[in-house]
Amino acid sequence: MSNGVGSETIGRAVHDFETTVRAYSADLYRYAWWLCRDRHLAEDMVQETFARAWKSWAELRDIGVARAWLVTILRNEMARSFARNRPAIDIATIAEAELPALPSFEGEVEMAQMLGLLPATYREPLLLQVLGGLSCAEIAGMLGTTEGAVMTRLTRARQALRQQLAAPAQRRSAK
Amino acid sequence: MNCLEFRRHKLADPRRLPDEAHAHVAGCAACAAFAREVDEKEAELERALAVPVPEGLAERAMLRSRTPPRAWRRWALAAGVVAALMAAAWPLVPRNEPQLYARLAIEHVVMEPESFTTVRNADAAAFRAVVHELGATLKEMPGTIRYIRLCPVEDGYGWHIVFETPEGLATLLLVPGKHLAAPQTASTAAWNALARPVRGGYYAVVASSAEAASAFDKMIRDCIVWA
Known about the structure:
Chain A is an all-alpha fold. Chain A is built from 8 helices and no strands. By secondary structure, chain B is of the alpha+beta class. Classes of the chains: A mainly alpha, B alpha+beta.
């Protein structure tokens, strides 16, 4: 009987875990990609994140906070990876950096370029909020700062994007 | 809440406004316009962040998470054996053969299949800039560009470029710094390549048939003037 209950519990855990993987793997991948700009590393980080999450799945009391929990694991994995491979060459970054004067990239591509130019202290809270779906308070907890400081960084990040995007648009309309 | 406070809240977290913010914007036309503009930019931001996700990512994550370590090690060992066998069977292994760079071009294409399924930096002006950077001049485009990436190659870095041509997708690799003594050709069951020395390095074309590779090579010679 206890085996039956055990297998039912395991079955539910497997179901919840798989649902969680399907729900959040894309956002986690995108978050990782924007931090490292490397497709292979980003996928590896996501896989490792879920592997660690599964090992500790019993510790997750509330499936509603799974997303923030996974983001925390992913951030730790990224930090570990960067610490291990600090001098690694990021080919994607080189590709973008060495394309001289990429003209006429508009809309989302332009936005993507602007995002890449944002300092990490502004970009990361923005990624955590837009891709991670976290509140300012949750981001503050994750980054070890205050909610007010996170609000300030997010405000400045969006102001910077608005200003940078306005400049080429003004140049285009002046032509 | 005043206008300044509303705007700070809106910029900090556009989707989670406190009740006072909702109350303020309901009665303030200027802030309502501001909120609409922020929402438009936010949608643009979300689209920009939505980089393509590799197919099967969730399935691979589940597999890796739930495979017991011992079995995983066995799988890794098996995968290593398979990889070694593939490497042994792969005709590109010898690194001192006369057609090496044409074969390496095929190997490069095979190892980067996403170059055919992803649109990346697909911009004619970007290609023109790359050609210019290599000291050449682009007379006209050799096809519709789909993909540009700076990649690691045998002797450093090279530009990996994919075009749509009348014969299908064709790949151009521009590799500065490596000099070939003579043109090289190579073929496998699925791919044909031609590597040609040019001033300052070499280029290689890869296509799915010898005819397509030859036609694309002619196109490259017609369209790019190597100073």
